[in-house]
Design a protein that fits this description.
320 residues, globular, 6-stranded mixed sheet, alpha+beta
Length: 320
């Protein structure tokens, strides 16, 4: 649960709100009546629409037929559980879906409305990746950051120092700043991606020799983590994207995959023995977050590597 703090000159207002998360499976671009899809699958959809139907309360109309099945879990449950709920309800007609999906457009969609500076977990385990691959579908997550805070232009030296140190972060100012003279804090969004291999006992250099790919970094059991006193509990081999931080997430991932390509078969064999992950990090300054999308190529690669996909999302929301 998130505490939204809006401070005025006279009083403090606290509004408790929880992040809202949902997921769905969508099938579109088919010519038949959506009822035919329901009949074939024997699964009752959450909703359907036909070409020409009005979208919501607007004046826009649907350009294609659609069939959608949404999660039935509470909105407070994590995204991974929502997706698993949808996949479990599709399971009785899995073979029929596997046959149908390549003919049309399919998508596993997630939506997150976040009211907290700490983003909800965005993680796709091996089971989800395998299901997405079998259904020939993409995975897409729409992220909306709705946490609000403000900074004042009337600060003591201590507060000015705090703002300079935390500029662009999602942390509310703890010094009692008012709504007067708001200060604009701005940073550009930064995105990165990496392929990480862990769970092996040999020295990371052995992995480098086998793959003949120079990693971005390696870690050994016992290595100190950053500037902390914590130490690594396992060996790791990491290859990071070389693109600019302003590139979108999909391009970062594809940059990493392209550099792994020369040793693809060796990597597939290695990944069957150890743990692998496509790791993504997003620092976003936009209320409507950065695009989080994994196309069929990325899903196929993750499946071949038996890799999970993890996204660490940080909203560096700017005050205006």
């Amino acid at each position: 649960m998130s505490l939204l703090h809006k401070q005025s000159l006279n009083a403090d207002e606290y509004i408790y709100m929880e992040s809202e998360i949902s997921a769905s499976f969508t099938l579109t671009r088919f010519d038949s009546d959506p009822e035919e899809i329901t009949t074939i699958l024997g699964i009752l959809p959450t909703k359907t629409w036909k070409i020409g139907d009005v979208i919501g309360k607007g004046i826009l109309r649907r350009k294609q037929n659609g069939w959608i099945l949404e999660s039935q879990l509470e909105k407070t449950v994590d995204l991974e559980s929502h997706i698993k709920d949808v996949l479990a309800r599709l399971q009785p007609s899995w073979e029929k879906l596997v046959e149908i999906c390549p003919q049309y457009y399919t998508e596993i969609s997630g939506v997150i409305y976040c009211y907290d500076p700490k983003s909800p977990a965005i993680h796709f385990n091996n089971e989800i990746i395998k299901s997405a691959f079998e259904l020939n579908t993409e995975i897409d997550v729409d992220y909306y950051f709705l946490y609000e805070y403000v900074y004042s232009g009337f600060h003591s030296d201590e507060v000015q120092h705090y703002i300079a140190r935390c500029k662009g972060t999602a942390l509310p100012c703890p010094y009692g700043c008012t709504l007067l003279g708001r200060e604009t804090l701005y940073m550009e969004s930064e995105i990165s991606a990496a392929f990480t291999l862990t769970g092996f006992d040999s020295d990371p250099e052995e992995i480098t020799k086998i793959l003949e790919i120079l990693p971005t970094e390696t870690c050994r059991v016992g290595d100190v983590i950053g500037k902390s006193i914590l130490r690594r509990k396992q060996n790791a081999w990491v290859l990071k994207s070389q693109l600019e931080k302003t590139a979108n997430l999909e391009n970062h991932i594809k940059d990493v995959l392209a550099r792994l390509k020369p040793s693809w078969q060796k990597l597939v064999e290695i990944c069957s023995k150890y743990d692998s992950e496509i790791s993504c990090v997003i620092y976003s300054v936009e209320a409507q977050g950065e695009v989080i999308s994994f196309d069929k190529e990325i899903i196929k690669s993750a499946f071949e590597f038996n890799a999970e996909i993890d996204v660490d999302y940080y909203c560096l929301h700017k005050s205006e």
